[in-house]
Amino acid sequence: MSQRESMEYDVVIVGAGVAGLAAAIRLKQLAEEKGREIAVCVLEKGSEVGAHILSGAVIDPRAIDELLPNWRDLDSPLTVPVTDNLHWVLSKNRKFALPQFLMPPFMHNHGKYTASLGNVTRWLAGQAEALGVEIFPGFPASEVLFNEDGSVKGVATGDMGVARDGTHKPDYQPGMELHARYTFIAEGARGHLTKELTRIFDLRKDSGPQVFGIGIKELWDVPAEKHQPGRVIHTQGWPLDDAWGGGFLYHQANGQVALGFVVALDYKNPYLSPFEEFQRWKTHPAIRAEIEGGKRTSYGARAINEGGWQAIPQLAFPGGALIGCAAGFVNVPRIKGSHTAMKSAMLAAEAAFDAITADRQNDVLEAYEPAVRSSWIAEELKIVRNAQPAVSHWGGTVGTLFAGFDMWLNSLKIRTPWTLKLHADHSQIGRKEHYQPIDYPKPDGKLTFDRLGSVFVSNTNHEEDQPIHLTLKDASVPIKINLPLYDAPEQRYCPAGVYEIVDDGGSPRLQINAQNCVHCKTCDIKDPTQNINWVAPEGGGGPNYPNM
Description:
This protein has helices at 18-34, 62-67, 117-130, 192-201, 274-281, 285-291, 338-357, 368-373, 376-383, 387-411, 451-457, 477-486, 490-493, 522-526; strands at residues 6-14, 40-44, 58-59, 84-90, 95-97, 113-114, 134-137, 141-146, 152-157, 160-162, 168-173, 177-185, 212-221, 231-237, 245-251, 256-264, 295-305, 316-317, 320-322, 470-472, 499-504, 507-512, 532-534. The protein is α+β, with helices and mostly antiparallel strands and 548 residues long.
């Protein structure tokens, strides 16, 4: 084994999303205020900052206001305020506009902005680097390092130049070890290091399981006469009938519309395809009218935390902390999480800075979790804590009515005494004999598309001669269990066509097209036996989103 070099920092942050960058900025701000030096680095697995960032997004600037009060003077990409806020309930051919007065006040989008979250992270990276933060794109953290006492010592980046069979190619380079007083995990929803640390430190012993949705998104250039900057539309209802989710359509800057569809991953029908439901949703007359005559320019997908308050794990562990979507602070009814992710990161930074100032290291940041649980993050998430489990338990109609009633009471400071429980998504899928296959329409190549063509416009690329990063704990499970019991649902829940059942000399075999992977993590979440384990591929691999 080649000797790995090491570098020392005060804080190492895994992931250059909004949480990781907010933590880095806040640490440097505190150091500047106190007149001391603090060394901070951020690792990012994408080829550049923002390459793997995908969100709607309608952004609540509350956390940015706190972090960078003068952000409006810093050439921020938040330039398009919400001007029109609509919520449609869809049937197959019609829409019903839900009156705004029926929605709790916190659901309104006045004062919010529609923007590319990828561009927001690029902008935040510029602010962080101006403060002296070191950012290393193209270097995924592949391994957690531990001290002899079991505390986290830091992380190691993945080796480069390893062939699929494990041998070293001529361009082989061993990974780098990054040691830190504290390590922040900000790798987003269902990160592989988060999974490992959760298991080792039993971080979920006092919380429910995290649950997820899969968000699939496209960017469209639309004709000028159809573009209305700041127009925001959310939908529920059609085309889903035995699953829960909905669509979004945001008119952003530069004549672009961001549209997408989210399907909760606790769905039961193994024949359901979230990708195909999204394509079908676009054929609704009301949605078609918004984009017809335009051109699709980009595509992507990403898992979204949906568990809310009761799914937040223990946040701090010896030597580090979970921040942002690694922990899971998304407000599902508001369809927002960047502001809560950033706030959690700022609170973690403040706890770490105080500890470093006191000459501590590699211990538990005891101040972090109480700070989160007494912050406006907690206030916001407690109000909506029953919304997602309500629709999961009782379906779209009854669940929505209950969720609305519950949220109204809580928003009026009438605290409801109940908190509904969550169930892990993979445990909810049903056996194939209880369901009928779904006949999805063929794509027309203008409004609707197939998966492989969609992956092409995501600019996804992986070095083909490298170990497959979609690993199987037991290679026999896909054919012995998934295929006979569930008709191999991985063929349908993956939005990138990674998994195929192929004929291998008269016998079925699971083929993994890892080069197609857009790093959404759906397979890691939804696989019925939890047999698929997503790990980081070689640095720089995956999608290269322009402004998603």
